[in-house]
Amino acid sequence: MDIIEAIRTRRSIGKVTQEPVAKETIEQILEAAVWAPNHRLTEPWRFFVLSGEGRGKLGEALAAIAVAQAGAGLDAEALEAKAEDAKKKALRAPVVIAVAVVPTERKDVIELEEYGAVNAAIQNMLLTIHALGLGAVWRSGEPCYHPLMNEAFGLRPQDKMLGFIYLGVPDMTPPQAKRSSAASKTTWIEA
């Protein structure tokens, strides 16, 4: 598959089978990630590959965050139900790759560029997954950025989990997609 085709045909695949994904395949996906462009070669990405019982680490973090966000007023049974629902999210795929940004402390590096580099690494991963015939969805949201998530994965306060790539063999037809033309979003400024 050429790169243009991969870019145009990649879709988020939110439903995958529980069939295992070979470690060598996961390593190939991670190798693609580290070739993302990054200013000053800081390599600010960190990957946590969760499979089997290892997905419980994410499930426990999601459960703790769900309970913390529930606030007062819920009884123990309702809190337990929230925690159990959150834990199940970690089991939606046989492999979850958690991706974090760990910004350098160098004064000559703009922190926002560190985030851009990790987002580019995630795109490399998603395109590689698609090219290998697998399916994935990049999930993020408020729980990613919660201090309890950092704590669960041993991240510093200035680090951030940027998302979870749920990876597996597709168990759905890829959705159709449409994009606005580049021309509709482009201003040409010429001399």
From TrEMBL:
Cross-referenced Pfam families: Nitroreductase (PF00881)
Q: Does the keyword NADP apply?
A: yes
All copies of domain Nitroreductase, residue ranges: 7-168
Q: Which cofactor does it need?
A: FMN
**Entry keyword set:** Flavoprotein, FMN, NAD, NADP, Oxidoreductase
Q: What class of enzyme is it?
A: oxidoreductase
Q: Tell me its EC number(s), please.
A: 1.-.-.-
What the entry lists under InterPro entries is as follows: NAD(P)H_nitroreductase (IPR052530), Nitroreductase (IPR029479), Nitroreductase-like (IPR000415), YdjA-like (IPR026021)
Which protein family is it in?
Belongs to the nitroreductase family.
Q: What is this protein called?
A: Putative NAD(P)H nitroreductase
Q: Which organism is it from?
A: Paenibacillus glycinis
At the highest ranks, the source species' classification is: Bacteria, Bacillati, Bacillota, Bacilli, Bacillales
